[in-house]
Design a protein that fits this description.
6-stranded antiparallel β-sheet; 6 strands; 5 helices; alpha+beta
Length: about 190
C-alpha cells in the first residue's frame, strides 16, 4: 500500500540531535520497518508552532512509503518510533521531539469521514477524535506545513474525501512563515 506520512519536530533530543536530524533518523527507522520501504521524501520545511504558548519553530516533511502492514499496524510502529525519540503524549499543541502522522493510507476513507459527507466542500475544521485511526488525516487539509511538502513530493495527490488536488487545498491556506529550509537527505 502506498501511503504518505507527515513528520514534525521542534525539540532537540537529549543528545543534542536537532529536529532535522531527528526527522532524518526517524525516516531511516520507518524504512527499516517490516514489509515497508521508503519511496521518497520532501524537503524540510520550517513553520511556526500551532497553539498557545511559546515554542520553537517546527521542522516538517512528508514521506511516501510502500508498506504491506495494515494501517493500524503501521500506525502502531510509527508510535513506537515516536517513543524511541522521546515523544510523550501529553496533549495537543505541545512541543514535540517527534510527531509522525499518517496523512493518507492507500486512499482509504474511514467511517468517521463518511459521517461528515454532507459538509465536504469547502474544507472545514473536522472534529474527529484521534482514536480510532482516521484516514485520511482529519486535519491535513488545513495544515500548510503538511500540504507544501506533500505538494513537493506528489503534486497530483488527490484528497480521498474532497477529491481535489493538493494544489487546490494549498490555495486556501495562509502560507506566511512556512519556508523550505533544505533537502531531506538520508
Amino acid at each position: 500500500m502506498i501511503c504518505f506520512i507527515a513528520l514534525g519536530a521542534n525539540k532537540c533530543q537529549a543528545n543534542g540531535q536537532s529536529p532535522a536530524q531527528t526527522i532524518r533518523a526517524a525516516l531511516a527507522d520507518v524504512d527499516a520497518l517490516p514489509s515497508t520501504a521508503l519511496m521518497a521524501a520532501s524537503g524540510l520545511y520550517q513553520s511556526a508552532p500551532l497553539g498557545p504558548g511559546r515554542q520553537r519553530p517546527y521542522v516538517n516533511a512528508v514521506a511516501g512509503v510502500d508498506t504491506d502492514l495494515s494501517a493500524a499496524d503501521f500506525m502502531g510502529h510509527l508510535h513506537s518510533i515516536e517513543a524511541k525519540y522521546g515523544r510523550a503524549r501529553s496533549g495537543i499543541w505541545h512541543a514535540r521531539r517527534l510527531d509522525l502522522d499518517i496523512v493518507d493510507y492507500a486512499a482509504d476513507v474511514t467511517p468517521q469521514w463518511q459521517r461528515q459527507a454532507r459538509r465536504m466542500w469547502p474544507p472545514r475544521a473536522i472534529g474527529f477524535s484521534s482514536t480510532p485511526l482516521t484516514l485520511p488525516h482529519p486535519r491535513a487539509h488545513q495544515r500548510a506545513f503538511v500540504l507544501l511538502p506533500l505538494h513537493e513530493l506528489c503534486p497530483n495527490w488527490l484528497h480521498p474525501v474532497f477529491q481535489v488536488t493538493v494544489a487546490r487545498l494549498i490555495k486556501g491556506q495562509a502560507l506566511l512563515g512556512i519556508r523550505r529550509i533544505g533537502p531531506l537527505t538520508l
